[in-house]
Amino acid sequence: MDEITPLERIRRQLALSVGENAVFDGWTQVAVEAAADAHGISREQARLAMPKDAVGLIDLYGQAIDRELAEAFPPERVAAMKIRARIREMLWTRIQLQAPAKEAIRRALATLAMPQNLAAAARLSWRTADHIWRLAGDTATDYNHYTKRLTLGAVYGSTLLAWLQDESEESAATAAFLDRRIDEVMRFEGFKARWREGSDRRPSLARFVARLRYPPR
Hints:
about 75% helix; 11 helices; mainly alpha
């Protein structure tokens, strides 16, 4: 394991607190200073360690949430769960971990939706989906590696938006929304598996051309 530098240690110590303070102060240096005060870290050190821009702070917060999620799902817990349960519970837990910073998440999405930040938004979405699939034990390296992450990123993004608008008790409406989306993903994955299994039986243009060129004897 790589050694954590002093500045990285400060970033990790402050990242979640910055998100929670961003509820009131936005993704700004004011939130950084408030987090530093709460943790007994000098503001000068905090300013040196933390990004100066909102996207950088949002990025660090997301990394901190990913670490919290990994701690919540050690390998032995994951091994005892079916794949649907793994994905569903990881998505739901990730949303719950962000509950103390809910209004800051709303601001973060507005910031990431700005044209100049769309590339960063796509990168963060991909990283979230990739992190969840890896925690779930996915080892795909073919095109499935990409389709799984794109699909999960879309599910997570839509569920996050539903959660931000949800006023039901204990976010029950969001939980139901997530269950429906997960069911759709599982059906899609099942369809892809059946498609691959039947590929050898489907007509193939390449095999047809080969037969024309090299007819069976």
